[in-house]
Amino acid sequence: MIAELGHFALVLALMTSLVQTVVPLVGAQAGWSDWMRVATPSASASFWLTALAFAALTYSFVVSDFSVELVAANSHSLKPMIYKVSGVWGNHEGSLLLWVLILTLFGALVAWLGTNLPDGLKARTLAVQGAVGVAFLLFMLLTSNPFSRLEIPPLDGNDLNPLLQDPGLAFHPPFLYLGYVGLSTAFSFAVAALIEGRVDAAWARWVRPWALSAWMFLTIGIALGSWWAYYELGWGGWWFWDPVENASFMPWLAAAALLHCAIVVEKRDTLKSWTILLAIVAFSLSLLGTFIVRSGLLTSVHAFASDPTRGVFILGILVVAVGGSLALFAWRAPAMAPGGVFGVVSRESALVMNNLLLTVSCGVVLLGTFMPIIREAWDGEIISVGPPFFNLVFTPFMVVLAIILPIGAMLPWKRGKLGRTALTLLPAAILAFSVLALVWAFQTQRSTLAPVGIALAVWLVVGSLWELAERAKLGRASAAESLRRLARLPRGDWGKAVAHAGLGVLFVGVAGIEGWKQEGIAAMAPGDVLQVGGYAYRFEGVENVRGPNYFAERGAFTALRGEREIGTLASEKRFYPVAQMPTTEAGIDSGLFRDLYVTLGDRQTDAGDVWAVRAYVKPFANWLWLGSGLMALGALFSLTDRRYRVGAVAGRKAAAPPSAVPAE
Amino acid sequence: MRGALLALALLAAGPASAVQPDEVLDDPALEARARTLSEEIRCLVCRNESIDESNAELARDLRLLVRERLTAGDTDDEVMDYLVDRYGEFVLLRPTFTAGNAVLWFGGPALLLMGLGASVMYIRRARPEAAARAAPLSEAEQARLDALLKDD
């Protein structure tokens, strides 16, 4: 009964989304304000109906209603409650429902918060958002109905894939979808602006929060996925350049570019067509990601639902959305008036470089991800493109980006002097070079990457904070005056500094873990000691333990530094009997400067109580997640900047219409 | 009973995980080379995993093969060539630097150059001086145009 209610609500949501697409769009084209006003109630209705469907599915999972096919296939009565709930989106159909839920939520948010949006823009934006919803609701109802019943319900379910029964992965998909779908809102605004043929600073002020929040959620989602891979897959890798990872990384890069160039539109009324194009590209990459994950086109570790009909359907959505919006762009973009002027050395130019580096590096990832398919279609040659390729071609872009970032971020708008800004940052540069020399001289391993990465990190962190110090006249004014100035800085400036410093912190993590990781492998009996990079691991033995829905062999280890015991680690080999799958749980002793990481391997069959053990020292591993967290926090600061608050736009508009002024 | 079944299942399901202690070579230099090579070699039956990190039987066979070749005195390049001869280019996680992969290798730099060209053009056009030149008509031009029109 509940499941049928959910199904019914979903069909109704399709109807209201259709209304949301057609009526406001026709109204906006014909200039009928009552038709345009239909946008808001229909967007609300679409959201509440989808929420009802989602609640119905969640209910079915929570009460373990195994007559629902999806629940039977992905849940189990013994599973902990949190994984019963996360099981809702741990599969193709349910994750699609979550996707549509977020899509309609964002549509409804635009409707509710956008009281000061121009009527035409609001109607068209919601119509485009509604059209995306129609496509996905149709997809779900026609090919992937989450509410299908089973004629003969099983006694118990098949259990969720054990790899997904983990706190890190339980919340990885919702954040990723918040990111992907946030980009759909930027896309809707972009297409609406193209239909209207007008882009101004007010438009940018509406689009930027969506790009920013989408990017923030993508950052959190990707970081959660990476953290999960680090502790769950058993060898402490954190990024694999897997097609599905790339599928989330490409929209992230595009969104990063988008949120930077939207600043230029907002502040200087220029780069407008490019911003629109980026909004389209960013969402297209999100759709492409959905397509990759669900079509089975690219084989990957975590592709679910490899079903050709579904793939073809999503490909259809992709072609219509991307083709249609790009055609619209080609037709309407030339009509956009170019805006404000700026000098060659200026913040504007620096942001153009930022966009160039981010989009080209995104293009490189795209090329590498799809080249195996292209090559196979082209001349039948089957090739692999893996981490060695991506590391080689992607890293240079990030190095250049890091070098120009602090300078570009400090250049004034309109026209700057490169020499003057460079001179301001000279202390940061000197510090970075000193760190480079020091680290180079004192590192025990021969790594080129690590010292360079650490030096760039110093440059990024100090350079970003330096700007705040400059703005506060730190050292040049009294301490009280500096503090007051710091406190009065807009949140956006804080966000910028924190996010840029976060990138630096992330660089430390990458440099440390990639450049200096150490590894030891041994067959160990209880009491044996394994030396790895200045630390020692003493194997204490294995005991059998039992979890709620798994059995495990737990190996205990004591970590030693010299003679001193610094911690105990436990690594488990779990076996989930229902899903017939083994998993590993690494034993990790986390620290600010290094992680000690150990995994228990197989019992060596020929030698009694002897086990394969793999132990690592991973320097600065936590800086990866710390840096990602800081970047997301920076985005959050910027989001709370008062210029994005509801009403702030209208107030300012009344005071002084935002218009571009010539530089001189 | 259940425990016995479980033990059986554990035995059956127990995967060989990544590099095993018995595979490790005694010579640390040789072993280090083997590890570096392993990261570049694809486990052919896996999805985008190198043999260094894969749990599959085939990956183990390949790891042992690499070590066998290295012990026999092959250079790194010879080991890779040997593998490509046997399994095709598919086995390489970093595609060869050959004509067929030109788009892959030069696509990024080409994109960068094109983008750089476009950006430079855009920035130059946005300069105040350039913008002034492109402006419709200056006062003097307007006066001259008016004079010409009056002549007619």
Describe the structure.
With 664 residues, chain A is α+β, with helices and mostly antiparallel strands. Chain A has 22 helices and 9 strands. Chain A has a 5-stranded antiparallel beta sheet with strand order 2-3-4-5-6, with no helix packed on it. Chain A has a 4-stranded antiparallel beta sheet with strand order 1-9-8-7. In chain A, a hairpin with a 2-residue loop joins strand 4 and strand 5. In chain A, helix 3 packs antiparallel against helix 6. Chain A is globular, with a radius of gyration of 27 Å. Chain A starts with a helix and ends in a 9-residue tail after the last helix. The C terminus of chain A is likely disordered. Chain B has 152 residues and is mainly α. In chain B, helix 2 crosses helix 3. The N terminus of chain B is likely disordered.
- As a percent range, the share of helical residues of chain A equals 55-70%
- The overall pLDDT average of chain B reads 79
Number of helices of chain B: 7
What sort of overall outline of chain A do the alpha carbons produce when their principal axes are compared?
Answer: globular
Order of helices and strands of chain B: HHHHHHH
Low-confidence stretches of chain A: 300-305, 647-664
Main interface by residue count: A-B, 65 and 50 residues
State the end-to-end distance of chain B. 111 Å
Count helical runs of chain A.
Answer: 22
Q: Could you describe the largest sheet of chain A, including whether it forms a barrel?
A: 5 strands, antiparallel
How far apart the termini of chain A lie comes to 70 Å
Question: What's the rounded overall pLDDT mean of chain A?
Answer: 87
Strands of the widest sheet of chain A, in order across it, are: 2-3-4-5-6
| Structural class estimated from helices and strands of chain A | alpha+beta
Low-confidence stretches of chain B: 1-16
Q: Percent of residues of chain B in helical segments?
A: 55-70%
Q: What is the 3D form of chain B?
A: rod-shaped
Structural class of chain B: mainly alpha
Strand content of chain B: under 5%
